Structures are given as C-alpha cells and as structure tokens.
Automatic annotation (TrEMBL):
InterPro entries linked: Ubiquitin-activating_enz
UniProt source species: Triticum urartu (Red wild einkorn)
Molecular-function GO terms, alphabetical: ubiquitin-like modifier activating enzyme activity
UniProt keyword annotations, A-Z: Ubl conjugation pathway
Record-given protein name: NEDD8-activating enzyme E1 regulatory subunit
Annotated metabolic or biological route of this protein: Protein modification; protein neddylation
Length: 204
C-alpha cells in the first residue's frame, strides 16, 4: 500500500472538519439545554465541550446506589443470583457476616470474638445477627455455615498487615480514579478473600 503526504493531509482535514462540525452541534445543544433549565448558556465553556467530544468514545456513565439504599432496599434478584453462583457465594457469605459483625459491635460495644473467653457466647450472637441481615435482604429462613461464623468470631477483627496494605492500595486506586476522572471506578462492594486470594465486586 502506498500513499502521498497530500492524501494524508486531505484525509486529516476531512476528519478535522467533521470533528469541528460535531463540536459546534454539541455546543448549540448544550447551550439550548442550559437556557431551558435557567442556567447561563456560557457556564460550560467551548473548550470543555471540545474535550468532552474528543473523549466521547471513552466515556462511561456510572450510576451508583448509596450504602443507605443498599442496606434498606437490597435488590433481591441480585442477592439471589450471587448466592446461587458458586464463584460469588463465598464473597456473599463474607458480605453478610461483615454486616452482622457491625450489628454485634453496635449492640455489645465490641467486636465478636475479641475476648477468647467469650467466643463461645459470641458465635450464636453473630449467627443471629447474620440471620437478621439475611432476613432484611429478603432471604427469610436462610442461614450461613456454622464453620464460617465461628471462623469470623475467631478472626476477632484482626488486621493482617499485607491484607490491610492491599485493601489500602485498592481504596487509593479508586480515589485516584474519582479525583482524576479517569478509568472506571468499581461499582459495588469490594470483597477480598485473603484465604483464596480472590476478590469480587458485589453490585447490590
């Protein structure tokens, strides 16, 4: 395949003219909307609109549910889907238990299992809290593995340094995404299983 510089320049001018035309159409549309909603038509600059148009193919609209929405009105179909899926089920169990730990801590002013002498008493407390969380999520009558509940009690809220560092790195990465408005942030609750070295994002 051969080409000449003038052909390339001609093609470039065609693309530039089309991009400029699209940008003008977008600018008119934006000003029309701003005027209709009672905003200053010049409040969004042409340079900003041009940058927006330039990056349109990389744009992604992200809609998130707040933690309040996640807790008060969980999407039952998603919850059931995660519990039914073999890969997601373990992460879902940890999600429920983490919320149950918060409930026990709120009721007894301490994390379950933090005192060795009270682990035996804390296991049924944590299990009851987990059943309560499951019920709130629309899974009445459901329960979790006794072994997993016991393990979380034995864990007693400990923070293993490598795992804490990893979670801190993930959180920092998400903050950078939001601040720079580059790359797509995680949409949901991030669960990291340090036992199997697996992570999962649960969009609840």
């Amino acid at each position: 395949m051969t080409s000449l510089t003038e052909y390339y320049v001609s093609l470039q001018k065609i693309y530039q003219a089309k991009a400029e035309s699209d940008c003008l159409a977008m600018e008119h549309r934006v000003k029309s909307i701003l005027k209709r909603i009672g905003r200053d038509p010049e409040s969004i600059s042409r340079a900003y609109i041009k940058t927006f148009c330039k990056n349109t193919r990389k744009l992604k609209v992200c809609r998130y549910r707040s933690m309040e929405e996640e807790f008060s009105s969980p999407v039952l179909s998603e919850v059931q889907k995660y519990f039914a899926d073999e890969d997601s089920c373990y992460a879902m169990n940890f999600y429920v238990l983490l919320r149950a730990v918060d409930r026990v801590a709120a009721s007894y002013s301490r994390l379950p299992g933090i005192f060795d002498s009270e682990i035996v008493e804390d296991v049924p407390r944590l299990k009851a809290a987990a059943v309560s969380v499951l019920s709130d999520m629309g899974l009445k009558g459901a329960s979790l593995s006794e072994d997993l509940v016991t393990e979380v009690c034995r864990f007693a809220g400990a923070e293993i340094h490598p795992v804490a560092a990893f979670i801190g790195g993930v959180a920092s990465q998400e903050v950078i995404k939001l601040v720079t408005k580059q790359f797509v942030p995680l949409n949901g609750t991030f669960i990291f299983n340090g036992i199997d070295l697996k992570s999962q994002v649960l969009a609840l």
